Input
Amino acid sequence: MTLEEMIGARLAIGFHGTEATTELIQALQDVYAQTLVVFSRNFASPEQFTRLITDLQDALQRRLLVMVDHEGGRVIRFASGVTRFPAARLIGRTLSPESVRRQGETEAEELKRLGVRVNLAPCVDVLVEGSDPIIGDRAYGSDPALVSRFGVARIQGLQSHGVAACAKHFPGLGAVPNDPHRVLPTIGLGWDAMERVHLVPFRAAIEAGVAMVMSSHVCYPGLGEPPELPATFSPRLVKALLRDRLGFQGLILSDDLEMGALQHVGGMGEVTVRASEAGHDLLLICSDLAAAKEALSSLRQAYRSGRLSEAELASTMDRVAAVRKIFLA
Output
């Protein structure tokens, strides 16, 4: 693979539209796209959506790893062709982990029929009452042991039936006071609370073999981080904590790098380089194809100048290849 192809393999790209237009195909070719993030704006019917993915793969002449937020409740991107499961909080109050494992199995079979091989779920944040509703009913509850049991069951159901799961939002978004889609929030909890509560479900997910973990666009000054540094840009939280201390060997994903929480940083080029420095494997750019092209250019320059490590890029490629081998088989 060329340097550009390896960089393209690190970008998870979203787009507008429901058809594989000439313009879309060219834009994806320009950034050597291998991974897509899809939304309701890309879906009109199951038949249309499967044709879209097939047409893009045929035009690009490669298999695409397609991912979607398919949490249940208010976070379901497909209007038909899938079972609409309730929100996690209701499930955590009324059902059993075994039911959630079966939910994961059903989701996996339905998503595979649509050409999707990654579910950006479960949300394993531990809800703190009074926090911003951006998490709210997306969390299984306020008890870390309960969240762990239900999160692990969902992961096992999905992955045993061929769809990668993604535990989010590391190191824990359940106490967030503001929505990171709009502003950069701060969670002031210290290490004791994080270890006793918010990291517990992530440890369980890692032990269960979750394929992916997604970080959060939140500042954690109580963990010794600079006040304005989100986890997205923190090597201490991504590399040192998640990769090294917790021993996670799968793919580390950023949340959508176009969110309002990161707008103070500058252009997408600098955002993606800093997220890479922190230790992310896949960089989500969920809407703007021009921003993806800017990211490719800046990442290429960062590798060529030595700002980013080509040895770490090779390790990321190994992790990407391992996931593709398992879930695109």
About this structure: The beta strands are 11-13, 35-38, 65-68, 70-72, 75-76, 118-119, 164-170, 212-215, 251-253, 283-285. Residues 97-114 form the longest helix (18 residues). The mean pLDDT is 96.
